[in-house]
């Protein structure tokens, strides 16, 4: 799943099945859930039909609107145990060496922590939508060079360097180097920051 590349077909089907089931169990219409998540009803219809390659941020918004964690929406519906579902490849770029896997997800009262491993092929990029208000990312580069473009700043990280930033803004990753770049990403998610529970 991504804004500019292909997601895993298996994960897209997992998302479609899990969202539809959770929405019906909670008695939400598609219109109400779409409104709570801040997306269009048409987009939700397409996601539930498995016909839309939703971005990671969009899936996260839908999960939050249903009171679920991201991993509960992307894992295979047959697996009730989160531990059995991970690691799970969530994003696959157009190049084989560009992909991202969710390694672990820890849900605590008021906060979720996710651990990801990302890889970008030489010359490749990933463009992300803004996360929910209050969310932060902590990146650590394992190999290669990673450029992180924020709204008002650009950071270039080499292997062994890290960066923390607020991810409630549009941002992007770029590998300007000649070899694949690998990095870990921790995401701190505060599901209810800035949200109106009455919506």
Q: What's the helix and strand layout?
A:
Layout (H helix, E strand, L loop, with lengths): L8 H17 L4 H8 L3 H8 L7 H10 L4 H5 L7 H4 L2 E5 L6 E10 L2 E10 L4 E4 L7 E8 L1 E5 L4 E5 L3 E5 L4 E4 L6 E9 L10
Helix pairs in contact: 2-3, 2-4
Describe the overall structure.
- With 199 residues, the chain is an alpha+beta fold.
- It folds into 2 domains: 9-79, Orthogonal Bundle (434 Repressor (Amino-terminal Domain)), CATH 1.10.260; 84-189, Jelly Rolls (Sandwich).
- Helices cover 26% and strands 33% of the residues.
- The chain contains 6 helices and 10 strands, in the order H-H-H-H-H-H-E-E-E-E-E-E-E-E-E-E.
- It has helices at residues 9-25, 30-37, 41-48, 56-65, 70-74, 82-85; strands at residues 88-92, 99-108, 111-120, 125-128, 136-143, 145-149, 154-158, 162-166, 171-174, 181-189.
- Strands 1-2-3-10-5-8 form a 6-stranded antiparallel beta sheet.
- Strand 6 (145-149) and strand 7 form a beta hairpin.
- Helix 2 packs across helix 3 and helix 2 packs across helix 4 (56-65).
- Mean pLDDT is 88; it is low at 1-6 and 193-199.
